[in-house]
Amino acid sequence: ECKEILGKAKNLNLKQSKTLTDSNKYRTSYSKTLSALEEETIFSKLKLKLKREGVNLSDCEPFQVQRYLQGNEYKIHYDAKDIFAKETPSSLESEQRISTAILYLNDEYIGGETEFPLKDIKVRPEVGTLLIFRNCFVGNEALHPLSAHKSSIVTKGNKWIVSVWSAADMTSSF
Predict the structure, then answer these.
(1) CA distance linking residue 97 with residue 134, whole number of Å
(2) Which one, of 61, 90, 78, lies nearest residue 163 by Cα?
(3) Tens-digit pLDDT profile for residues 72-110
(4) Burial of 41 per CB tally in 10 Å (0-12, 13-18, 19+)
(5) Residue 31's beta-bridge partner residues?
(6) Residue 77: which of 148, 17, 142, 132 has the closest Cα?
(7) Do residues 69 and 160 lie in contact, with contact meaning Cβ atoms separated by under 8 Å?
(8) Are 135 and 99 in contact (CB under 8 A)?
(9) How far is CA 89 from the centre of its chain?
(10) CB 125 within 8 A of CB 107
(11) What are phi and psi of 77, to 5 degrees?
(12) Quick check: 67 and 30 in contact, CB under 8 A?
């Protein structure tokens, strides 16, 4: 299934990934947030699997395909916003990202592990692995400091993933 998704993903017009500051030094990957039609065309099987597991897809942002070339990384960051921050950029006025799911489409690369440095955890999954983690404390929207994570530098090959962010707790479904 991931080979089929990857084949379709490789035909997408990916652009330099952005962050809130639009700094391409912090996040050097390439990505595309999918339209509803692209999502349905490419991820119909994944969406069915998530629904069967109890994930309410209406709580999710559009899927985002990401490619990390050799030398690309995403430095330590949070997917959720700090609801207690005094000033919130307008781009953060969307719903809180309670949880994140990352589907790994390939493993023919070196480096690129998903790391949680404050927990001393490195994830180097196999093709088809779905990593789901909570960004906030259980039962509320407060950012959990231990959800800080990064994609380490890809030292050889290309890393392909799909990220899904949800305003609900996807971890309770698995």
Answers:
(1) 9
(2) 61
(3) 999 999 999 988 887 655 555 679 999 999 999 999 999
(4) exposed
(5) 15, 66
(6) 148
(7) no
(8) yes
(9) 21
(10) yes
(11) -160, 170
(12) yes
